[in-house]
Amino acid sequence: MRTAVEFDQFYAKPDPWKLSHASFRDRVFRRLLRETVRGRYILELGCGEGHLTAAVFGDAKSVTAVDISSVAIDRAKARGLPNATFKISDFLETSFKGFDVIAALECIYYLSPEEQDAFFAKIAREHAGKVFVMSAPIIGENKFRRYFTHSELMAVFSRHGMTVERFHNLNVSRTGFPTTAATAAARIAPIVLDWLPEATIYQRLYKVLTR
Ligand SMILES: C[S@@+](CC[C@H](N)C(=O)[O-])C[C@H]1O[C@@H](n2cnc3c(N)ncnc32)[C@H](O)[C@@H]1O
């Protein structure tokens, strides 16, 4: 999926990624982003139906939240969130200027490799000296698409003059007994996630400083 038409079709039924059932994910994001978000001006990229806008960015001073899908944005607007403004926009065409924090949670990998490079260059250019947070799978590749690995992402950040302040594990890959046990432990105490080896991790969150 890349175009507005494709994402609108995917959003034909509400909540296509079943995010309303992802309460553990919400809890982990809230814990990790609380201090970064509180009282700040946020640009949330790929906001979809505004699930994280409500669940994670509620303490922000204001959130400008954009998505390529008009269907998703209509549902996001219907939430009536007092601190949020929702806009239909492709994030490669969105201005990145004037925000304290830009958040790209689980959306960059829909861009082609060339577009991803243009995206990071745009962040470096239009959001200099600020905070950028992004989350994505770090598994390299699966049957659906090619994702980053951790070392590839570190190289991308470095190439664009960005410094990683910290990163955190968000969840584990779903195969095998050790990861099932790790998932169970992490649900009781999410801090356990950061003790797990990289090979067991599915997604990571990065807090990055631009120069
Ligand atoms: C997997 S969903 C994640 C939604 C939300 N960030 C979350 O994690 O709950 C990815 C979202 O990115 C949006 N998206 C993908 N490519 C985009 C683009 N180029 N510009 C704006 N939004 C885009 C999709 O429409 C979709 O709503």
TrEMBL record:
Keywords: Methyltransferase, S-adenosyl-L-methionine, Transferase. Transmembrane segments: none annotated. Residues 42-125 form the Methyltransferase domain. GO terms for molecular function: methyltransferase activity. InterPro entries: Methyltransf_25, SAM-dependent_MTases_sf. CDD domains: AdoMet_MTases (cd02440). The keyword Mitochondrion does not apply. One of its GO terms (biological process) is methylation. This is Methyltransferase domain-containing protein.
